[in-house]
Description:
Layout: H1 10-20, H2 23-29, H3 36-62
Helix pairs in contact: 1-3
Family: Belongs to the alpha/beta-type SASP family.
GO molecular function, one term: double-stranded DNA binding
Pfam family, one: SASP
Amino acid sequence: MARRRGVMSEALKYELAKELGVADIVAREGWGSVSSRDCGNLVRLAIERAERMLMEDNAKNKK
């Protein structure tokens, strides 16, 4: 069975975890110890960041 590649890099996930204040849990206990609520918030932040980048790219391309 082929291993599925993650959508987000570990660096991005850790950066978002820092932003949410759960990076210490990740460092100490791993991703499995992060609450589902915090994981959901991490995904929400990633989506917001991606949308922002797309809007900025679209604005640059229209110029």
